[in-house]
């Protein structure tokens, strides 16, 4: 068999195994090693397993992943999301559609200290959903706004997916985080605008919430200091150059722990829960990383990434044509896989094409993360939608997808804006020097 | 009898999970102390970098043990979700058997790597301490993973009611 | 008629690094000499595996030839570590021939799992810092990103702190004050943008990093006698110098570039200052001697042989 045929067969086998629910990382590792052993020999292939596994888990720069996960987990169990939502709600919840806006704003605030979009969606399903339902917000809108708001978790820094993209492409994690800030704020603003348009079109659909006296509003707002301090400390420290990204994660996790203790929001079981959840998610992500490296070595031997670059650039559809093609491919993959798996599987293959076409790697990081995050909310499957469904039991997938539809349109508009004006993403990181 | 051995297994699983969780905390502490020492005392823990990355290795392999047992890996659930209960079980058993095979091979090859680190006398950067004991502890996490996946496979086939699956919201992060 | 052989060459430096075209030229010459029966594909940028694993990759057949930094695994190659001691090499090109001629006698024992092809060094590196460093006592209290474990030990013994970071991370480390100084060869300073964040450059050949280019044994053994001869003819001190040449030129040229930039101070050391540095390095050498004794070599004989070779090839300080 020619290397090309082996590569194609490898992809087919990979998709079959994944559809049979073999963990994504294990499937990539298995196919990678079998393919490698066919092309190079079983001895080197087996040695590659031990070497790659050990090297990946003991790579210091990868430490950034579990550290930001731990920070997010500690913040989650400290009840910060509830405080954020309460503050946003008492400020604007009384306006028509205000509870939806409050949810978006609180999601953004939570996203500024938590790196995961699924965690953001999960926590606000528990916090914001009951409140919206109490004021007769439709089920579809309530779940839709949470699914969309959740994606802010991965767009605004810190972001696990952005960190993984940075590691895979050897870009500066700090710069990628900075690149996410303005587009993240843009995303929030556009979600708010979307809600405003919905209110305009269907004035009675999203009623106003409770009006609270100003004394209470200020009291609720005061509780926001802790996440704010943590964000300024970690992201400011990264921007100002006090920490490396891995250190920022470790110090952020320690900061979240100390703040939780000082504010009496943490106890034994909660600490245990946070530690366990960080361990589990980190282990799951590293499994995919190891598998993707093994699969990547196999693809390198077949030289298919080079051939793909040649093929795509030889199509004669221009660089934006190729970019559009790549993004459509991501949207299709988004029907199957979650964001992390998609990034890890495809970036090593797609990235050389992007560099070859002369696109900015930092900008592309933001674009690609937004695109895969879109996969988390678009039908037929989406991780954020699953998560909401598991918390809010009495809602159907169709209802959630219906509610999320206007936000999907917004996301696509936002992507077009960012492709037309890369400066939105690149302005802050270039100022960093 | 079955109940007794089940609770024994559960206790072992909890212990393994706890050990992994503690290592996450230690990695964060190591970084925190290193940063504080550098910023305020102009000094460093010797080998903080090497310790940090080797602790990371330990945490991940022990974490993989816990994650594998709970079914917490990142999976593509499209077909599974659409399948009927019988088909679901077939898919689950197949996926777990593949998982068991892959992690068993990985564990064997990691042993080879640990042995190599010992034989080749690889030392830490600052203090020149042998690195193989750290690698051995990490490797032992993968051994636990094989054991736990074996237990998972057994339970999945014979006592599916004893399996405690992870909920989607606890699943890996995107 | 020789059976056609295709070799996978693995280098972990990025594609645009001057070492890669030199390795490609080496491979092209092999192709010519073997009448096309030995071809090669060069994989740069860690495409086949991480930098730290390159020795094992050649041993295990993951790559057929690999570019190894033995210093990445302190303790594993004690004899070779001698070449990374401070103030030995005056230049990179001649130094590459010198280190190869010297290490050839130890390679069969110390790197027994692979077929040794040749050893080489880069052009000597030095301190580039935010605060001026002239004497060993200046290191006290400084945070330094060392190039090798040996330089790291020197820093520690002088009361400094080591900061570990990959080469691309180094600029950030310096800019953010995580590190005050770095030891780097001259050309790479510009390549990684470090010239934007440091001001002072000590003009003294502080250290070199030794590298080896090694081959998978099985691949070599499976070749025909004629092919083996072609490989052997390309694993020589001359080729070591030829392959190291473009990189050495690049690093060497960096000094003039930095000196020409405004806002940079490139300063020479007086003989007394240089002497103080040599004295400061003595404990590192003693520590190295101990590690060599453990593997049954005589450190004095090893070091004298290295110095002799350096003199022979006009690379001694
Ligand atoms: Na975030
Ligand atoms: Na989707």
TrEMBL record, chain A:
Family listed: Belongs to the TRAP transporter large permease family.
UniProt cross-references to InterPro entries, sorted A to Z: DctM, TRAP_DctM
Organism of derivation: Variovorax boronicumulans
Transmembrane segments: 6-39, 60-81, 101-129, 141-168, 180-201, 248-266, 278-299, 311-333, 340-359, 365-392, 404-428
Subunit structure comment from the entry: The complex comprises the extracytoplasmic solute receptor protein and the two transmembrane proteins.
Domain TRAP C4-dicarboxylate transport system permease DctM subunit, first and last residues per copy: 11-423
Protein name: TRAP transporter large permease protein
Entry keyword set: Cell inner membrane, Cell membrane, Membrane, Transmembrane, Transmembrane helix, Transport
């Amino acid at each position: 068999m020619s290397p090309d045929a082996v590569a194609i067969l490898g992809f087919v086998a990979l998709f079959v195994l994944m559809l049979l629910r073999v963990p994504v990382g294990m499937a990539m590792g298995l196919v990678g090693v079998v393919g490698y052993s066919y092309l190079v020999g079983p001895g080197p292939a087996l040695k590659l397993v031990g070497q790659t596994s050990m090297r990946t888990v003991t790579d210091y720069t990868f430490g950034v992943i579990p550290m930001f996960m731990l920070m997010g987990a500690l913040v989650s169990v400290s009840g910060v999301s509830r405080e954020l939502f309460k503050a946003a709600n008492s400020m604007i919840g009384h306006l028509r559609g205000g509870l939806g806006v409050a949810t978006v704003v609180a999601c953004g605030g939570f996203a500024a200290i938590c790196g995961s979009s699924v965690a953001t969606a999960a926590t606000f399903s528990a916090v914001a959903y009951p409140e919206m339902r109490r004021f007769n917000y439709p089920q579809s809108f309530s779940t839709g706004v949470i699914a969309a708001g959740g994606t802010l978790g991965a767009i605004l820094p810190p972001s696990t997916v952005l960190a993984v993209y940075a590691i895979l492409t050897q870009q500066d994690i700090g710069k990628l985080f900075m690149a996410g800030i303005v587009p993240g704020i843009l995303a929030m603003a556009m979600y708010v605008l979307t809600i405003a348009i919905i209110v305009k079109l269907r004035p009675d659909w999203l009623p106003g919430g409770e009006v609270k006296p100003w004394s209470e509003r200020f009291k609720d707002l005061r509780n926001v200091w802790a996440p704010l301090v943590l964000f300024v400390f970690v992201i400011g420290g990264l921007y100002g150059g006090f920490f490396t990204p891995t250190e920022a994660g470790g110090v952020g996790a320690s900061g979240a722990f100390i703040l939780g203790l000082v504010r009496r929001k943490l106890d034994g079981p909660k600490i245990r829960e946070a530690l366990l959840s960080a361990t589990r998610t980190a282990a799951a992500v590293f499994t995919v990383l190891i598998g993707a490296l093994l699969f990547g070595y196999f693809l390198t031997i077949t030289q298919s990434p080079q051939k793909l670059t040649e093929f795509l650039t030889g199509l004669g559809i221009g660089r934006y044509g190729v970019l559009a093609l790549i993004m459509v491919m991501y949207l299709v993959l988004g029907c199957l896989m979650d964001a992390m798996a998609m990034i890890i599987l495809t970036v090593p293959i797609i990235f050389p094409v992007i560099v070859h076409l002369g696109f900015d790697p930092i900008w592309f990081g933001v674009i690609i993360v937004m695109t895969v995050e879109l996969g988390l909310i678009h039908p037929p499957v989406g991780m954020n939608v699953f998560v909401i469904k598991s918390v809010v039991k009495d809602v159907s997938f169709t209802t959630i997808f219906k509610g999320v539809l206007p936000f999907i349109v917004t996301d696509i508009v936002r992507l077009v804006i960012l492709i037309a004006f890369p400066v939105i993403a690149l302005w802050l990181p270039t100022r960093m020097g | 009898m079955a109940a007794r051995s089940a609770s024994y297994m559960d206790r072992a699983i909890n212990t393994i999970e706890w050990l992994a969780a503690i290592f996450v905390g230690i990695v964060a502490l190591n970084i925190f102390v290193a940063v504080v020492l550098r910023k305020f005392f102009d000094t460093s823990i010797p080998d903080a970098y090497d310790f940090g990355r080797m602790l990371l290795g330990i945490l991940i392999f022990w974490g993989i043990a816990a994650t594998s047992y709970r079914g917490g890996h990142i999976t593509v659930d499209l077909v599974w979700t659409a399948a009927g209960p019988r088909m679901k079980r077939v898919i689950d058993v197949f996926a777990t058997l593949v998982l068991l095979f892959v992690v068993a091979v990985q564990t064997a090859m990691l042993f080879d790597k640990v042995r190599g680190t010992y034989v080749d006398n690889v030392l830490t950067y600052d203090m020149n301490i042998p690195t193989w004991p750290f690698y051995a502890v990490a490797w032992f996490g993968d051994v636990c993973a094989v054991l736990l996946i074996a237990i998972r496979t057994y339970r999945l086939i014979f006592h599916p009611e004893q399996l405690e699956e992870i909920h989607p919201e606890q699943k890996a992060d995107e | 008629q020789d059976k056609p052989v295709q070799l996978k060459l693995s280098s972990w430096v990025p594609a645009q690094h001057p070492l890669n075209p030199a390795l490609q030229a080496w491979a092209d010459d092999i192709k010519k000499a073997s009448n096309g029966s030995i071809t090669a594909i060069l994989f740069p940028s860690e495409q086949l595996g991480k930098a730290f694993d390159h020795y094992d990759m050649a041993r295990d057949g993951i790559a057929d030839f690999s570019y190894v930094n033995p210093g990445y695994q302190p303790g594993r190659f004690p004899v070779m570590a001698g070449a990374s001691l401070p103030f030995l090499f005056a230049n990179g090109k001649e130094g590459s021939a010198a280190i190869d001629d010297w290490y050839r006698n130890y390679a069969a024992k110390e790197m027994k799992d692979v077929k040794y092809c040749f050893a080489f060094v880069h052009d000597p590196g030095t301190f580039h810092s935010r605060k001026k460093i002239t004497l060993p006592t200046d290191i006290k209290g400084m945070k330094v990103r060392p190039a090798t474990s040996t330089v790291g030990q020197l820093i520690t013994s002088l009361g400094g702190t080591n900061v570990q970071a990959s080469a691309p991370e180094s600029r950030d480390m310096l800019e953010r004050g995580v590190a005050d100084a770095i030891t780097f060869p001259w050309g790479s300073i510009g390549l990684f943008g470090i010239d934007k964040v440091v001001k002072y450059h000590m003009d003294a050949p502080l250290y070199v990093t030794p590298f080896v280019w090694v081959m998978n044994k099985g691949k070599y053994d499976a070749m025909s006698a004629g092919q083996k001869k072609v490989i052997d003819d390309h694993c020589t001190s001359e080729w070591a110098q030829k392959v190291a040449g473009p990189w050495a030129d690049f690093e060497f040229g960096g000094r003039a570039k930095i000196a020409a930039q405004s806002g940079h101070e490139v300063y020479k050391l007086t003989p007394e200052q240089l002497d103080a540095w040599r004295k400061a390095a003595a404990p590192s050498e003693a520590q190295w001697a101990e590690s060599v004794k453990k593997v049954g070599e005589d450190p004095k004989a090893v070091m004298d042989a290295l110095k002799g070779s350096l003199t022979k090839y006009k690379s001694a300080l």
